[in-house]
Amino acid sequence: MLLAPKPGETIVDCTAGRGGHASQLAQQLQGQGTLLLCDLDGGNLAYSADVVAQACPGVHILRHHGSFAEAPRVVAQAGLRASVVLADLGFSSTQMDDPARGLSFMRDGPLDMRLDPSAQLTAAALVASASEQELERIFRVYGEERMSRAVARKIVATRKAAPIATTHALASVVKTVIPATGPINPATRVFQALRIAVNDELGHLDALLAACVAPSSRAGSGLAGSAFWLAPGARVGVISFHSLEDRAVKQAFAAAESSGGRANKKPVEASEAELARNPRARSAKLRVLTLA
Ligand SMILES: C[S@@+](CC[C@H](N)C(=O)[O-])C[C@H]1O[C@@H](n2cnc3c(N)ncnc32)[C@H](O)[C@@H]1O
Question: How far, in Å, CA of 172 to CA of 109, rounded?
Answer without folding.
Answer: 13
